[in-house]
Amino acid sequence: MRGRSNQFSDRFDWTLCLLIMLFCLTSCVSIYSANKAYLPTQLMWYGIGAIAIAVLTYFDNEQFRKLTWIFYGVGIALLVGLVFAPITDFTPQRNGAQSWYVIPGIGSIQPSEYMKVFTIMALSKVMHDHHEKTIYTTFKTDFILLCKMALAGGIPIALVIVQDLGTTLVLMAILAGMILVSGITWKIIIPIYGTALSLGSLILYLAIYGRDFLLKYLHIEDYQFKRIDSWLDPVESGDSGLQLVWSLQAIGSGLISGKGLGNIEVYIPERHTDFVFTIIGEEYGFIGGSLIIILYFLLIYHLTRTAFISNDPYSIYICVGVISMIAFHVFENVGMTIQLLPITGIPLPFISYGGSSLMTNMMAMGLIFSIRYHHRTYMFSSRLAV
To answer: FRET label pair with 175: which of 98, 152, 316, 360, CA 20 to 30 Å apart?
Structure first.
C-alpha cells in the first residue's frame, strides 16, 4: 500500500469544490432574479453547508459506519414525531402536509430531506456488513440481503409517504439504484423490477382510462386525479394546470439565448423553489438550460469516477446512493417544468431555494469529500486516482 499524501492540497477534492461553487453562483443569480429577499438566507445555508462539508470530510468510512444507525435512528424518530404530532406552531401544516419542525431563530427543518442521506448511509452499511460476513453467495443469501435493504429503505418510505410524495419517490429511486449494485442476482432483481414497472404502468393507465374502477374499488377521491389531469392537459385543467402552463410559457419565451438577466415577464408563484429552472430558461434560454444540464452531468461523472477509484465497497455504495439521489432530482425537476413528468414538488439540487434541501445535498457532498480525502492507493492497483 502506498498510503495517502499528508498534503491537504493533494487530498482535497478541488474538482468537486469548483462544481459546488458554480452551483452556488447559479443559485444566487437565479434566486436574486426571482426574489432578492431570499438571497441572504440562501447564502447563509451555503455557508452552513460548507461548514458541514468541512466537518464530514475529516470523518473516515469506519467512523461513518459506526455512526450510521445513530443518524438513521434520529431521522426515523423525527419522522415518527411528525406522524403523531398535533398541528402546532412547532409542527405546522403547509399545503396539506405536516412535514416540518419550526425552530425559532433557525427556521423550518424538514426531516424527510435529511433522511435521504441517512438512508444512503444505512443501505451502504447493510450491504457492506452483509458481504463482509458472507463468504459464498447463493440465492438465499441474496434474498436475505434484499430483505435487509427493503427493511432499511422501506421504513423511511412508509413514514414519508404520508407527508411528501416527491421525497418518497426520491427514497425509492435511491433504494432502486443501490439494489442494482448490491450484488444481488439478476434472477431476483429482474422479476421484482419487472413487476414494479408493470404495476406502475397499470396504475397510470387506470388513472387515465379506468377511473371508475379506482373510484369504486380503491376509494380514491376524485380530487386526487387533478394532478394527472394538470399534467396531461394543463390548459383544460383550470387552476390546477396554471403552474405548468406558466412554466411552459416562461421556458418557451426564452427561445435560444434568453431575455437576459432580470428580464422575467411570465409570473410563476414560488418560482425560487421548485420551479427555479423556469428562471434559467426564460433569462438564458436553451443555451442556459443546456449549460445547467451539462453542469449536472459533470457532477455525476465526477461522482462516478470517485466510485471507480475507491478501494472500499462502502465508499462505492455511498457514491451510487448519492448519484441516484442527484440524478433523480434533476430528471424529475427539469421534467416537470417542461411537462415531461407530473409535478411532484422536487427541488433542483443546489439551485432551488430551501435550507433543508440544500443542507441534504451539501451533507451528501461531504461524504464524497471524505471518500476522496481518505482515499488510499495500492502499489499493485490498476486504478489511478483522478
So the answer is: 98
d(CA 55, CA 66): 16
pTM summary value:
0.90
Say what angle helices 165-180 and 186-209 make with each other, to 10 degrees.
Answer: 150
- Rounded CA-CA distance 197/219 in Å is 23
Strands 107-109 and 101-103: antiparallel
Residue 302: pLDDT over 90: yes
Sign of the dihedral through C-alpha 316, 333, 53, 360: negative
